Amino acid sequence: MNAVEIKKDVYWVGVKDWNLREFHGYNTPDGSTYNSYLIMDEKITLVDGVKAYLTHEQIARVKSMVDFSKISYVVVNHVEQDHSGSIPEIMKLAPQAVIVTNSAGKMALEAHFDTTGWQYYIIKTGDSLNIGKRNLSFLTTPMLHWPDSMMTYVAEDKLLLPNDGFGQHLCCEALLVKDYPNDLVMKAAKSYYANILLPYGQQAEKALSAAGEMKLDIDMIAPSHGLIWSGKEEVNQILGAYASWAKGETNHKAVIVYDTMWGATAKLAETAMAEFQDAGINVVKHNLGISHISDVITDVLDAEYVLIGNPTLNNQMFPRVAAFVTYMKGLAPKGKKGLAFGSYGWRPGVAKEIKQVMDDLGWKTADVFEEKYTPKSDVLSQFAQRVKEFINL
Ligand code: FEO
Fold it and tell me: Ligand 1 centre and the CA of 83: distance in Å?
């Protein structure tokens, strides 16, 4: 189990989680990686830990380069356990090492672990740390993804180590974006942004502009999940995508998400889909009995129109619709146009609860459309008309 050089004297010493299929509710069919980097300078520096159960693999990769007693600094960019799980073991092996983190990072480490005897070097945005031939500088990026999140920049290598930022839940043999189909990496990066970072668009915009103010010259972005962006073209590709997602830019596209018990809400969903197709608008349809909510939200990220269809069950939202609406509410996509629709047996009104969530998110919404039991052709025509009006909202 060896380290892999990604820049002269900078090594990948991370781990691959081939079996990961779920990440706090997010469907991860392609696994993930927890990337860690070892900088072999006068003061040897390890950047980030890995998930606890793969600690032995990270340790083996570090040991392929250096004994832990020679490590001077351990940079902790983020304390979520997929990046800090191995830190207690690392600190046992390298008690002389100083942890480099920000004040929120120190607080989070102390809240998670027994940190007795750990030494810290606390940084804030713009601070730098000389490790020999290199100077590390730091950018705190609160809420990307936790309050403690920060990024480390190595000017001499034009290398940004942004932890969760620009990552993808993707596990494969390749280490570099250029060695994997680009469309699949971008799909994974988009899904990652939608499911992890979407609520923090403002903070992402702030971080991007702070990086601009610091005039960071970047030709490699090595995140802590997935593949490494190398070369200006790839760096600009992912920075451009983040700028667009953070601003909430949309494509002329609709997402219809629904569930159904006896086919009534499905009929309404099909009617809506036909209207978008006839209008020449790109449209995708997700049945929540089949699609995972994390795939749906990935489609919602850059959609202009979001339609949510609910089959009323026991006077409530259908449980899978409720789960999606709750997930969406937390991720808080902005700038959409929303239409809630559905069917009911004896109590109408549940679609209004969905519309309320859309309103609370600041979306432009149409009046809800609900039908008792099965919609007949005249009702489907009325709904088609409602969708036509919605398209022009
Ligand atoms: Fe990859 Fe927020 O942890």
Answer: 7
pTM (global) more than 0.90: yes
207 and 334 assigned to the same domain: no
Cβ–ligand 1 distance for 164 under 6 Å, the answer yes
Question: Same structural domain for residues 145 and 56?
Answer: yes
210 pLDDT band, cuts 50/70/90, is confident
The Cα-based distances of 229 to 32, 48, 111, 345 in angstroms read 16, 18, 33, 53
- Residue of minimum CA distance from atom 3 in ligand 1: 80
Same domain, 296 and 383: yes
Q: Rounded to the nearest whole angstrom, what is the distance from the C-alpha of residue 80 to the centroid of ligand 1? A: 5
Domain count, the chain: 2
Query: Which atom number of ligand 1 is nearest to the Cα of residue 81?
Result: 3
Identify the domain containing residue 17 by its residue range. 4-247
**Which residue, judged by its Cα, is nearest atom 1 of ligand 1?**
164
| Residue carrying structure tokens 């088609």 | 384
End residue of a domain, out of 247, 269, 300: 247
Whether residue 262 is found in the same domain as residue 179 = no
Encode pLDDT of 212-254 as tens digits.
888 889 999 999 999 999 999 999 999 999 999 999 999 999 9
